[in-house]
Amino acid sequence: MGAAKPRRNFSNEFKKNAVKLVTEKGLPVDKVARDLEIHPNLLHQWRRQFFDQGNNAFVGKGNLEPEEAELKQLRKKLAEVEEERDIFKKALAVFSNPQKRRVFS
């Protein structure tokens, strides 16, 4: 059997330019796909993604959409605040109960 072709990765810029050839220049999807050596269905998928998400389409690996990046940042901040709260609660418990205090000499 023949060796499988490695999966190709396309940059965000490549995808946006391919979609622009179809949307702005009015070229047929089949012709653009043939010229770029990609499957027409892939170009249709990119076009749908671009129409649905606009400039946030094709964020790429490791790059989060703005909403997801903000959510990640807020979750991190919440974890920090909860940790600080827990430390203050423990400190309050230690300092408010005189029997549990230790005297270091």
Report what the structure shows:
The chain is mainly alpha-helical and 105 residues long. The chain has helices at 12-23, 29-36, 40-53, 66-96. The protein is elongated and about 85 Å long. It starts with 11 loop residues before the first helix and ends in a 9-residue tail after the last helix. The model has no long low-confidence stretch (mean pLDDT 84).
Q: What is the number of E strands?
A: 0
- Low-confidence sequence ranges: none
Shape: elongated
Measured between the Cα atoms of the first and last residue, the distance is: 80 Å
Proportion in helices = 55-70%
Keywords:
2 domains; single chain; 4 helices; mainly alpha; 105 residues
Produce the secondary structure layout.
Layout: H1 12-23, H2 29-36, H3 40-53, H4 66-96
In a nutshell, what does this entry contain?
This protein is mainly alpha-helical and 105 residues long. It is built from four helices and no strands.
